[in-house]
Design a protein that fits this description.
Distance between the termini: 66 Å
Order of helices and strands: HEHEHEEHHHE
Strand order of the largest sheet: 4-3-5
Number of domains: 2
Helix content: 25-40%
Number of strands: 5
Number of helices: 6
Length: 132
């Protein structure tokens, strides 16, 4: 005996739709497609690659981050606070370059040049604040 419903389901091609999975809300929305020809597949933004390359991942160097930072003069302990979107390391290198070329573009390098203070390695100068 020939079952036309079964036969029709085998010959009709299902269409797939991809949804980013956020939790029970995603399941509730995709439930609408349960009795249709549209099949649902889930994806995630939380991939292993993204987890391992996150800006604040503990395996990365703390100076690779960007946010608010503070530079301290090792000679007199005066502080300069700044904010950057580039890495702390890159921004600190800019300060050092300004110091070496004696152009004093930032308040920090102006302070070092005017007062005859020395610039040292990043560990002597930089503290940073992570956003939560």
């Amino acid at each position: 005996m020939f079952n036309s419903k079964k036969h029709r389901n085998k010959t009709e091609k299902a269409h797939w739709s991809k949804f980013t999975y956020f939790g029970k809300e995603t399941r509730a929305v995709t439930k609408v497609f349960r009795n249709t020809r549209i099949k649902v597949t889930y994806s995630t933004n939380n991939t292993l690659e993204k987890l391992l390359t996150k800006k604040h991942h503990p395996l990365r160097d703390k100076y690779d981050n960007s946010r608010i930072y503070q530079l301290t003069c090792p000679t007199c302990s005066k502080k300069y606070t700044g904010q950057t979107r580039m890495s702390f390391r890159t921004r600190f290198q800019e300060h050092l370059r300004d110091f070496r070329h004696e152009n004093g573009k930032s308040s920090f390098t102006q302070h070092l040049l005017v007062n005859g203070h020395d610039a040292g390695p990043i560990e002597e100068h930089l503290t940073y604040h992570q956003q939560r």
